[in-house]
UniProtKB/TrEMBL annotation:
Pfam families: EVE. This is EVE domain-containing protein. Keywords: Phosphoprotein. CDD domains: EVE (cd21133). The lineage of its organism: Bacteria, Pseudomonadati, Pseudomonadota, Gammaproteobacteria, Chromatiales. InterPro entries: 5hmC_binding, EVE_domain, PUA-like_sf, THYN1-like_EVE. Residues 2-151 form the EVE domain.
Length: 152
């Protein structure tokens, strides 16, 4: 099993949106970064767990846990001209973008804010707090995963 951090702006799609979905499951669509796409397509597997991190909000931080329930497959929103994620260079025969399906596991007892994550010496090497890391999806070691959950 692998561990991940997946970022989302709560004003666009947050933990409560996922929890409200039928079966508390949804597509993780709209990723338009090649490095993140490669992780979706090549590395994420059913059973992997992901921390949901709310970004670009008054208190950015880790808010919940999701499970990957379907491995990477073509992101259909890239083919839809009506979608804000439409990409005219992507087509079903040669998809450019991928997504996974995630299921809500639980909301954390409290949001673990970025300021606390940065202050935790056990997390000094995690990509989540490295300056300039803007990826919306990133791997997390088992040790960093546990260190974050221990802050709950």
């Amino acid at each position: 099993m692998s561990y991940w951090v997946m970022k989302s702006e709560p004003s666009v799609y947050g933990i409560d949106d996922l929890a409200a979905q039928p079966s508390q499951t949804d597509h993780w669509e709209g990723v338009r970064n090649y490095q993140a796409r490669n992780m979706l397509r090549d590395q994420m597997r059913p059973g992997d767990l992901a921390l949901l991190y709310h970004s670009n909000c008054p208190q950015p931080g880790v808010v919940g846990i999701m499970e990957i329930v379907r491995a990477g497959y073509p992101d259909h929103t890239a083919f839809d001209p009506e979608s804000k994620y439409f990409d005219p260079k992507s087509d079903p025969d040669r998809p450019r973008w991928y997504m996974v399906d995630v299921r809500f596991k639980r909301r954390l007892a409290r949001t673990i804010p970025l300021t606390e994550l940065k202050a935790n010496p056990a997390l000094a090497e995690t990509p989540l707090i490295r300056r300039g890391n803007r990826l919306s999806i990133m791997p997390v070691s088992a040790e960093h995963w546990q260190a974050i959950l221990d802050m709950e």
